């Protein structure tokens, strides 16, 4: 992370990032590894230059195509929930978007498969991963509601757009004991859920209220 544009200045400096880490800690994020990943990842390169000065506020921001980069607190919380059970080998992410959540996961798992339905967003994310030197990420342009059967089963699945209910296809692509963290429900009534695969069924924990863009079918 030695490139000047990654280091940032002023509102995008390391000091600004450190303030975000302190804030997330106050908001209840406990995982040292997750906080470290947030500290080391320049969020300002995941948004348009015009928004770079706001990149370390704890808010979602527009990334074009009607989509948003998730709020840092939610990224940290979902990552922490996914990792709580121990080390993860392969993870599926549905909704690459800006790629920020993917970049946070990258140092914490062996391999990530990330699926995005909007090709233009996927292209931008790919360039960001290249410039950061992140090599354990595989991107797919497809409808992630179906999962990625050819690479299943996964130790973890993280969904960053909200379906109305828990997609069965995704549960079936979890290893026994594997976990999936996802928002479910209609706009303004979503809840964050953690699903743990148990035999042919699963356990479900309802965690907190959240606001995500909807999971949509088809590709663009
Ligand atoms: N983790 C991303 C969140 C982006 S918003 C970030 O922090 O930037 C959610 C993303 O999910 C959007 O980019 C949207 O295009 C994508 N998405 C929605 N439905 C999808 C689907 N069925 N398959 C794959 N991606 C989907």
SSE map:
Elements: H1 4-7, H2 14-26, H3 32-40, E1 61-64, E2 67-69, H4 72-83, E3 88-94, H5 100-105, E4 109-116, H6 119-132, E5 137-141, E6 154-159, H7 168-172, E7 174-184, E8 190-198, E9 201-210
Parallel strand pairs: 3-4, 3-6, 4-5, 6-7
Antiparallel strand pairs: 1-2, 7-8, 8-9
Helix pairs in contact: 2-3
The structure holds S-adenosyl-L-homocysteine.
Subcellular location: Cytoplasm
EC number: 2.1.1.77
GO molecular function: protein-L-isoaspartate (D-aspartate) O-methyltransferase activity
**Distance separating the two termini:** 32 Å
Mean pLDDT over all positions? 95
Bound molecules: S-adenosyl-L-homocysteine
Percent in strands: 25-35%
CATH superfamily descriptor of the domain at 63-209: Vaccinia Virus protein VP39
Q: Please list the strands of the largest sheet in the order they lie side by side.
A: 5-4-3-6-7-8-9
CATH class call of the domain at 63-209: Alpha Beta
* Tally of alpha and pi helices: 7
CATH architect. name of the domain at 63-209: 3-Layer(aba) Sandwich
How much helix is in the residues? 25-40%
């Amino acid at each position: 992370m030695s490139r000047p544009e990654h280091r940032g200045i002023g509102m995008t400096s390391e000091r600004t990032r450190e303030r975000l880490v302190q804030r997330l800690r106050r908001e209840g994020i406990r995982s040292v590894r997750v906080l470290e990943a947030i500290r080391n990842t320049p969020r300002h390169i995941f948004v348009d230059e015009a928004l770079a000065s706001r990149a370390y506020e704890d808010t979602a921001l527009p990334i074009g195509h009607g989509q948003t980069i998730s709020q840092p607190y939610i990224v940290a919380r979902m990552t922490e929930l996914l990792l709580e059970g121990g080390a993860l080998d392969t993870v599926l992410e549905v909704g690459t978007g800006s790629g920020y959540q993917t970049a946070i996961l990258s140092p914490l798992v062996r391999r990530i498969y990330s699926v995005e339905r909007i090709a233009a967003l996927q292209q931008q994310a790919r360039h960001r991963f290249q410039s950061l030197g992140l090599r354990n990420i595989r991107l797919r342009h497809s409808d992630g509601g179906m999962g990625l059967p050819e690479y299943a089963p996964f130790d973890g699945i993280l969904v960053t757009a909200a379906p109305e209910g828990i997609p069965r296809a995704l549960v079936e692509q979890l290893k026994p004991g594997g976990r999936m963290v996802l928002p479910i429900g209609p706009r303004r009534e979503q809840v964050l859920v953690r699903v743990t695969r148990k035999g042919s069924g699963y356990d479900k924990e309802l965690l907190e209220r959240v606001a995500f863009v909807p999971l949509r079918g088809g590709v663009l």
